[in-house]
Design brief:
Blueprint (H helix, E strand, L loop, with lengths): L1 H18 L7 H11 L4 H11 L3 H11 L3 H19 L3 H15 L7 H13 L1 H8 L5 E9 L3 E7 L2 E6 L11 H4 L5 E10 L4 E6 L2
Parallel strand pairs: 3-5
Antiparallel strand pairs: 1-2, 1-4, 2-3, 4-5
Helix pairs in contact: 1-2, 1-6, 2-3, 4-5, 5-7, 7-8
Length: 209
């Protein structure tokens, strides 16, 4: 794919020379120009189109990266890649191709991708909900730790920093009138995630027998 990557990079350089970097503020026009210059590279243009048409904010980030100082470039690229992964679920192969194309077009010197992984680790450590979002979904079975008992049910910790509720109607113990008689703080409960509300940061689960 090296030949195709170079062709796309050259096409982007040409577009920027003629229309300026702000052409990325209009991603539809940018993609149409790319179609005209390299019509044969359908698969490769699809990668570019999929990413930059998904959100205009990414195009603004690309423009910022174009003007970014060399000292800040690695971390800012890492943030950009992380945003793509988080929001659009694009494969690593496509992301690497996309970054390589624009790296050549913008004249970046990228010698490794360690910064990307380090940035992802930093983000997920600081925000456990991002780590949760990457690894868990509705239907996932977990071993959750009881951290609270209420009249509504049992509060459990799924991972550090992310709690969930097993409603009384979804507990497996037959005698649910006195939850404290059946469950204790520190108990490990095998449960299935029933629903997730990332906006309100709420998780509901059902205990498995």
């Amino acid at each position: 794919m090296d030949y195709q990557k170079q062709e796309l990079s050259n096409a982007i350089i040409k577009i920027i020379e003629i229309r300026g970097i702000d052409i990325l503020k209009n991603p539809n026009v940018f993609c149409s120009l790319l179609d005209d210059i390299v019509p044969k590279l359908q698969r490769e243009r699809k990668i570019i189109r999929r990413i930059i048409l998904g959100n205009s904010g990414l195009c603004n980030e690309l423009i910022s990266l174009y003007y970014c100082s060399e000292s800040d470039l690695s971390m800012n690229i890492s943030k950009f890649v992380y945003n793509i992964k988080s929001e659009y679920g694009v494969s690593d192969e496509w992301i690497n191709f996309f970054i390589s194309v624009f790296a050549d077009a913008f004249g970046w010197c990228l010698d490794n991708t360690n910064g990307i992984q380090l940035f992802e680790n930093e983000i997920t450590n600081n925000d456990p909900w991002l780590a949760f979002k990457q690894k868990y979904q509705i239907g996932t079975i977990v071993d959750a730790t009881v951290i609270g008992l209420t009249r509504f049910g049992v509060v459990v910790e799924i991972i550090h920093g992310v709690d969930g509720l097993i409603h009384i109607s979804k507990l497996s113990k037959k005698d649910k009138n006195e939850i404290s008689d059946e469950y204790s703080i520190g108990d490990i409960i095998k449960a299935k995630i029933d629903s997730i509300d990332f906006e309100k940061k709420r998780v509901s689960l059902k205990e498995l027998i």
